Amino acid sequence: MSVNPMAYEAQFFGFTPQTCMLRIYITFQDYLFEVMLVVEGVILKKLGALPGCKISPSQIRRSTEKFLLFMKEHFDKLFGKMEEVLLQLVLNIPDNVLLPEDKVHEQYPYSQEQFQALQDEIQELQQQYRAEASAGQALRAELEEQKVVQAELEKILQWYDGLENICREDGTSNFKESFTFLTHNCKKLQSVLKDVEEKSKRIKKCKQLS
Q: Measured between alpha carbons, how far is 204 from 210 in angstroms, rounded to an integer?
C-alpha cells in the first residue's frame, strides 16, 4: 500500500485513496476465500459420489489451502500493479489542479514567512486581549470598591447634614461650637446615666435587705 498521505485527494473525495484501495483489496480477498470454499464443497460432493474414492476430506482441504495460497500470491502481485495505476491515474489530483474552495489561495498567495508572521500577529493579539480582559476585570473590581466607599461617604454626609440641622435647631451655627456643645451634653448624659445606675444598685440592695 502507498504511504503517500494524499491529503489533497482526501479533501476532494472525502476519503483517502489508500482507504479506498484497502477496501477493494479486502473485498476481492473475501470473495476469493468464498469462491475457494464453494469449489472445495463441489469437489467433496463430486468425490463423495464416486465409488471407491480414497481421497479424504482433509487431503482436499490441504490441497485447497495450497491452491488458495497460490492464488493469493498472484492476486497480491496483480493488485499491487492495479493499485499503482489507480493511485496515479484515477485517484490522483495533478499538481496544477486547484480545487474550487482553494481558489482564494491563487488570488491571494502568501509565503511561509508571511504565514508565520500572521501566526505571530494572531498570538500577540490574543495576549493583548487576555491582558485587556484582565485589566477590565481589575477595573470592575475597583469600581465595585468605589461604589462601597461612595455609599459610606454618603452615609457620613447624611449624618453630617443631620448634625448641622440639630445644631441650627439648637441655635448654634458654628460646627466647632456645635461639636463642643454635643460633647458637653454627652458628658452630662453619661454622668446622669452613671447616677441612675448607682441609685438602681442601691434600691436593689435595699430590697434584698428588706
A: 10
CA torsion sign for 74, 75, 78, 83 is: negative
Query: Would residue 115 count as lying in a domain?
Result: no
User: Are 95 and 146 part of one and the same domain?
Assistant: no
Confidence of residue 24 (pLDDT cuts 50, 70, 90): very high
Q: What range defines the domain where residue 167 resides?
A: 138-173
CA distance 135 to 168: 48
Overall pTM > 0.70: no
Say if 94 falls within a structural domain.
yes
How many Cβ atoms sit within 10 Å of the Cβ of residue 89?
A: 8
